[in-house]
Amino acid sequence: MSTPTLLMYIATMAIVTYAIRAIPLVFIRRDIKSVFIRSFLYYVPYAVLGAMTIPAVFFATQSVISAAVGLIVAVILAWFDRGLLTVAAVACVAVFITEWVMTMI
Amino acid sequence: MIQNDFQKGLRHGIPIALGYISVSFTFGMMAVQKGLPPWSAVLISLTNVTSAGQFAGLDIIANHGSLIEIAMVQLVINLRYALMSLSWSQKIDRSVGLPGRLLIAFGDTDEIFAVSSAEPGTLGLNYMLGLIIGPVIGWTLGTALGAMASEVLPDAIRSALGLAIYGMFIAIIVPPAKKDKAVRVVVGIAVALSCALTFLPYLNNISSGFAIIICAVAASAYGAWRHPITVDNGIQGPSPADTDAAAEPDKQDTPQGGDTR
Fold first, then answer.
1. Is residue A68 part of a domain?
2. β partners of residue B2
3. Residue from the list A23, A52, A77 with its beta carbon closest to the beta carbon of B110
4. pLDDT tens track for B78-125
């Protein structure tokens, strides 16, 4: 594939994606009054995160078992209000240890 | 209250950057396997900063699809960013002008959006730039590493890092869900729909980007209909009753607070 063609593809992807991101942020400057829309927007991040986490998390590591262990560890830490970095790091360590143990047995 | 500490933003971006490195590493490897030069994989990551859209774009480029096709696919898969950008339009501080908004828009990803949403108050330019810079570097760097050599990171480390992003998501969802039944209901619906769209025949033909839009719109609309938030500061943060639910963990008045970094 020629370089100009490749660059056209990349530019098209980048422009479309950026336009989607920039247009609402730049053009909507007023406060939205509607309780429904405000409530809707309040729930969006939780809904997005829930949908992105499950079931995808179970396929994020080498085995479903290590992912499940990591998930459980993360939920327990988060339940006790640990910070983002702590929860993420300890969950990763839990996955690492689980997979190491699995290779032992 | 405005959240505008650059360093705090940087710290909050670290888990995202770590997760991004492992995901974009895969993207870099795949791009090279499909015959793209490494520089183009890195350029795609640097200019797009999105996972599902890039993976889909890769297939189209490899199959010599049309520009219209690649544009349409990006539009559908990435349409969810418009939803997040709309939410940001209410949460970004009024002091942030046009250039600042144009910069921030570049960093509108699921993960960055989610972390910023968990902050109480409005969001300032410094905090947002701090939050965005690490993940963008991580995403680009991971792509470069993946494109250059697949054996840079041992499998065991890559596998473990794969959980970083999800660990962070959990840290954002669980504290408010623990306190607010409405959040639990919304998350429950989103998860159920997400599983349905992943596993059920026919439904699993829906692209992953579009699936997230469906889950987010349906679950949030249900929440807004059945559990409208009280109060005037809904978008700026949750209602006073559960202010500490969405507050950052280390700012909370809990015994564990403050020792997490």
1. yes
2. B122
3. A52
4. 888 888 899 899 899 999 999 999 999 999 998 899 899 888 899 999
